[in-house]
Amino acid sequence: MKPKFVQVKNYLLNLFEREQFVNGRQLPTEFELMDELDVSRNTIRKAILELENEGIVNRKHGSGTFFTALKEEKSSSGGLIGLGNFYFMDYIYPEIIRGIEDTLYKSGYSLVLANCNQDYSRELASIQRLVDQGIKGLILEPSRNFLLDKEHPMMRLLGSLKIPVVATHWGGANTDFSTVTINDKQAGYQAVKYLLDKGHARIGMIYKNDVQAACFRYDGYCRAMKEAGLEVLPELIVSYDDQDEARDKNQGYICTEELFYKSGKNVTALFYFNDNIALQGYEALKELNLNIPDDISVMGFDNFHHTHLVNPPLTTFEHPKYNLGKWAAKILIDEIEQGERMMPMELIFEPVLIERESVKDLTLQ
Fold first, then answer.
1. What is the DSSP-derived secondary structure letter of residue 143?
2. CB-CB contact of 342 with 53 (8 Å)
3. What is the model's pTM?
4. pLDDT digit string (tens) for 345-359?
5. 236 and 93 share one domain
6. Average pLDDT rounded to a whole number, residues 44-53
7. Residue 153's CB: how many other CB atoms inside 10 A?
């Protein structure tokens, strides 16, 4: 659990983005923030002091605290910024990359991509090539990031770099580099709470067990089930890993069939850790002659652009794709132009539920 003042700081950064604060706009008062967040005045003041030291807000005695925007991007000679991604450059990544590239372009930087397509033998080499090309900073989402420890070759390579590194979807255990991520534990918790409130108790989950976002969403699933007094049953959980996916991309389909075989079809709702595998699950459920949502309710995550077109439209969570990329680039530029190693920061987006038609309310029966 992060210190409370850090949580308040992240809340304010999200507020500035969500409400599109302009230069000179006044923040809520300390007392309003105390009531809203249920924390002490000292905690609020400590968070605001951090933001003031970073040039994001300005306190005026007797008047209040005002947004002054992130530090103005200094004129720069530009240069190359590397982007390392273990996955294919599809699904949600084009929009993330667009956010990165738009932001870098405004500051005179150019983006160079290194995609290893889940080929571990070339992942380290791809990053080293970027470094050899003279990149000034690196934005990275490493493969199997839930399994990385201090002795992993990836961590040793990153630790040896003399350039700033900003990670995406890799918060929590990553304390060495700044990161922009999503509150994935809250997302999993919120998804299962939503299904529980709709009267579901036999809730299955399918997730990827070597990716931090997926594992954190599973943690949230477990917490919600336990809070409801429900056991986390092995027959309702199916996971896969990066190597499974490298062999066959249809893990959502495969795992859905496996879950229904294990559970004896005794399940009323499924939470897929992302929309990609949820859409594959739709196909498996169709072949199992199950109707969504009458026979089985389904939830995903990411608000992938196809999810409102399927039948029925998928209930999911918004992924701040463009903004996640934009903020990763902003933080990296700040660290490059600071000229010295900064204290790593973590920017966390909160999950936002998008209700559609794939979940049945059993309480109405």
1. T
2. no
3. 0.77
4. 889 999 999 999 999
5. no
6. 89
7. 11
